[in-house]
């Protein structure tokens, strides 16, 4: 019997998938937000979980080394598409937010709140309403961004770039974690797999380019650039950026983050 490990099906995880599955494990495709509940329930033993969900997983999981998904500037796949500039995206403007996110929605909340004030955040668009802005992540954001936006989307804001310009630090979107009650051999297998990934990262990234480019119908050079901005083996500055995010969302966060118009 193999142990389920959540695997984000986005292209940014393709180099990880290129290595194959950890010994005794099998990948279960799962969008970022879904991995939080799966870890809580024990449906999966490990995941690259959104940092926005780590608070809910406190006491349930432990991080595995310094592995994850981060960017120090443009990330190319966490984008706000809007008909107005970012600096004009406040009430009474409306936004739509992908249901796949747990970290990027919190990042957008902080960036908009610190720009306009948290009492002037844009409203969530009602069902059937055409929003003034839309937050997309993953492959949908990457492809649409390369196409220079869709109809009515004039402005494209890379949230990671905006965070970097304000704070001077990378933004960490996800961290590899394993359930604390996972069997020792499973924890060891995940750790060995990630260590091997670190040793082979450059070759695995290059090997993943052709299939990823074909799947997205993008030029290989675009995918290669995309892979180059993703930070998977994290350093001190990444951890500092993550800690800053935790402190800031802990101080300024609320529930719900965004609200519908009264």
UniProtKB/TrEMBL annotation:
It is an enzyme of class 4 (lyase). Coiled coil: none annotated. Its EC number is 4.2.1.151. GO terms for biological process: menaquinone biosynthetic process. It catalyses: chorismate = 3-[(1-carboxyvinyl)-oxy]benzoate + H2O. InterPro entries: Menaquinone_biosynth, MqnA. SUPFAM superfamilies: Periplasmic binding protein-like II. GO terms for molecular function: hydro-lyase activity. Keywords: Lyase, Menaquinone biosynthesis. Pathway: Quinol/quinone metabolism; menaquinone biosynthesis. It comes from the Bacteria. Belongs to the MqnA/MqnD family. MqnA subfamily. PANTHER family: CHORISMATE DEHYDRATASE (PTHR37690:SF1). Catalyzes the dehydration of chorismate into 3-[(1-carboxyvinyl)oxy]benzoate, a step in the biosynthesis of menaquinone (MK, vitamin K2). This is Chorismate dehydratase. It comes from Desulfosarcina alkanivorans.
């Amino acid at each position: 019997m193999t142990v389920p490990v959540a695997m984000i099906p986005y292209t940014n995880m393709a180099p990880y998938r290129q290595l194959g599955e950890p010994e005794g494990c099998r990948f279960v495709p799962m969008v970022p937000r879904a991995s939080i509940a799966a870890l809580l329930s024990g449906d999966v033993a490990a995941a690259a979980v959104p940092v926005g969900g780590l608070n809910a997983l406190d006491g349930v999981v432990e991080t595995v080394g310094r592995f994850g998904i981060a960017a120090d500037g443009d990330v190319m796949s966490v984008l706000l598409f809007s008909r107005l500039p970012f600096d004009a995206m406040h009430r009474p403007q409306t936004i739509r937010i992908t249901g796949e996110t747990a970290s990027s929605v919190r990042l957008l909340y902080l960036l908009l709140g610190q720009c306009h004030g948290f009492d002037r955040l844009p409203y969530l668009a009602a069902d059937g309403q055409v929003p003034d802005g839309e937050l997309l992540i993953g492959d949908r954001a990457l492809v649409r961004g390369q196409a220079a936006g869709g109809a009515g989307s004039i402005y494209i804001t890379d949230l990671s770039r905006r965070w970097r310009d304000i704070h001077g630090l990378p933004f960490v979107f996800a961290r590899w974690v394993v359930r604390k009650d996972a069997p020792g051999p499973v924890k060891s297998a995940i750790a060995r797999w990630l260590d091997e990934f670190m040793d082979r990262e450059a070759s695995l990234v290059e090997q993943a380019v052709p299939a990823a480019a074909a799947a997205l119908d993008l030029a290989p050079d675009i995918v290669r650039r995309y892979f180059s901005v993703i930070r998977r083996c994290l350093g001190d500055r990444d951890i500092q950026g993550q800690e800053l995010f935790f402190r800031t969302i802990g101080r300024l966060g609320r529930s719900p983050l965004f609200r519908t118009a009264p």
